[in-house]
Amino acid sequence: xxxxxxxxxxxxxxxxxxxxxxxxxxxxxxxxxxxxxxxxxxxxxxxxxxxxxxxxxxxxxxxxxxxxxxxxxxxxxxxxxxxxxxxxxxxxxxxxxxxxxxxxxxxxxxxxxxxxxxxxxxxx
Length: 124
What we know:
Strand content: under 5%
Largest sheet: none
Low-confidence stretches: none
């Protein structure tokens, strides 16, 4: 079996597909058709022969990304917590971290250096 080089594999994959450049008018027509027909990215990709990524890039560049006044859904559970509470938690964490790191480093050094019960103090 012949070894297929990367360039041949890429050529085989995209054989028959031609890269197209759309004019701004064509892009506007595709975006308008998608909006009127309330098409999803997948439907637009199938209907017009463009990728979903291309459609969403065109849409965002045209300023059609979201409806005015639409709110994003918070991604993290902490996003719903009030800002003052988050800042208070961060402040407590910042205070606790140096002590935790100091203790962990001490444990590690004891295990590596074998202090044999001798007390060592790590001062900040």
